[in-house]
Amino acid sequence: MNRIIRILMAAAAGLVLTACERPPVDSVQHGYRGTGMLQVYNPRTIAEQIPGNQPPAALPAASSEGPKARDIFQNVQVLGDLSVTQFTRHMTAITSWVAPQEGCAYCHNLQNLADDGKYTKVVARKMLLMTQQINAQWKPHVAETGVTCYTCHRGNNIPQQVWFTAPAQQNGSNFIGDLAQQNQPSPVVGLASLPYDPFTPYLLNDLPIRVNGETALPTGNRQSIKQAEFTYSLMDHMSTSLGVNCTYCHNTRNFATWDGSSTQRVTAWHGIRMARELNQKHMVPLTDTFPANRKGPTGDVAKVNCSTCHQGAYKPLYGAKMAKDYPELLGPIVPAPAADAASAPTVVGMAPAQPATPKK
After folding, report:
1. Which is nearest to 150 in space by CA: 11, 23, 21, 321?
2. DSSP state letters, 326-350
3. 86 in Cβ contact with 68 (< 8 Å)
4. Which of 66, 166, 182, 274 could bridge to 197 as Cys pair (CB 3.0-4.6 Å)?
């Protein structure tokens, strides 16, 4: 009997510990001592992520000499200033980044390459413009690293990490009230019961991302517990998407204040606004272009969030500078939006955090 009890206790302990990460884990201090500014990494998790975060080899550079693409091919609305060989090189790269199995036929009518009959071609053209805008206008977030189509697609027609607005929740009873998208554990928030769509209010709409009010009661502090939980949900998504702790951006002495935060918090501030603009100005306008089978349960198009590019790495592709090999994607140099440039926060007293780059 005692043996059976010990076996049962061991089995129960195993079930309890299945949700825990087994050691060893690595930690890196990047802030002042005594502030808890540590990054904790699981080598096994990182090892699993490495293969999916390797950039493909760049195609050999093409000559800029010769006729322009717009003068030889029909209906070239983007990248027409490239030479024919440069244009062909770029189309070859896009095919490998987005449709390696389907080839050119994924976007083009092979009987008439100029035809815009396939919605994928219209979408691809818009995505080229979006990529150029990211590289030219959002340097406060992407810096000189930049992005290419591969940053999000990684050989898939549809990026693996996209989101749709969640449908209205069915309460199932009149007395339960508004469930606020909670108590239904979702992988979006690490199987917690936090709200599972923090993206619509913050990465599509522009609601305040706060936990505490900026002034005291009774006239201030109007941030409700519900709003705070949506904020926690977004923060959980950002932490998971980058594979980092909350202290990658925040100072544990005061999460709200900017003084003492790491410079990554400023980068994240710009990233939130970048994702919001991309969704509003590039993705949502394509709603009528996409067929019904490519839309979400509420009829909206797929949209971007932090994980669309990062996919578990603190920098997409661990900071590989793919865009420099495809300068046509860098776009015209334009200043950042005036409103964002003027209101961008600054941090005081904290050096940039430098997580350990995983070994290949």
Report:
1. 321
2. -GGGS----PPPHHHHHH-----S-
3. no
4. 166
Determine the 3-state secondary structure of 149 from DSSP.
Answer: helix
Helices (H), the chain: 2-17, 43-49, 69-72, 84-98, 119-137, 139-142, 149-153, 199, 225-242, 263-278, 306-310, 338-343
Highest mean pLDDT range out of 112-126, 200-214, 333-347? 112-126
The domains of the chain, with CATH numbers, are: 24-343 (1.10.468.10)
List pLDDT tens digits, range 310-342. 999 999 999 999 999 999 999 765 544 544 555
Those residues with Cβ within 8 angstroms of residue 12's Cβ, 6 or more apart along the chain or in another chain: none
Give yes or no for residue 60 having a pLDDT over 60: yes
pLDDT band at 53 (very low <50, low <70, confident <90, very high): confident
Rounded Cα–Cα distance for residues 251 and 348 (Å): 11
Cα–Cα distance for residue pair 153/73, rounded to 1 Å: 26
Report which residue type is found at 41: Y
Token pair 């935060």 in the structure block, residue: 261
Task: Please give the Cα distance from 360 to 357 (Å, whole number).
Answer: 9
Q: Is the pLDDT of residue 352 over 70?
A: no
Q: Which residues in 49-74 are b (16+ Cβ under 10 Å) and which e?
A: eeeebebbeeeeebeeeeebbbeebe
Where is 39: in which H helix or E strand? strand 38-41
- Spatial distance between the Cα atoms of 180 and 168, rounded to a whole number of angstroms: 9
- The residue-averaged pLDDT of 234-262 equals 88
The β-bridge relationship of strands 38-41 and 26-29 is antiparallel
Q: Give the sign of the dihedral formed by CA 235, CA 236, CA 237, CA 242.
A: positive
Average the pLDDT over each of 31-35, 51-55, 287-291, 351-355 and give the range with the smallest value. 351-355
Torsion angle of C-alpha atoms 240, 245, 247, 250, degrees rounded to 10:
10
Sequence-separated contacts (24+) of 227-230 with Cβ below 8 Å = 229/180, 229/182, 229/194, 229/195, 230/194, 230/195, 230/198, 230/201, 230/202
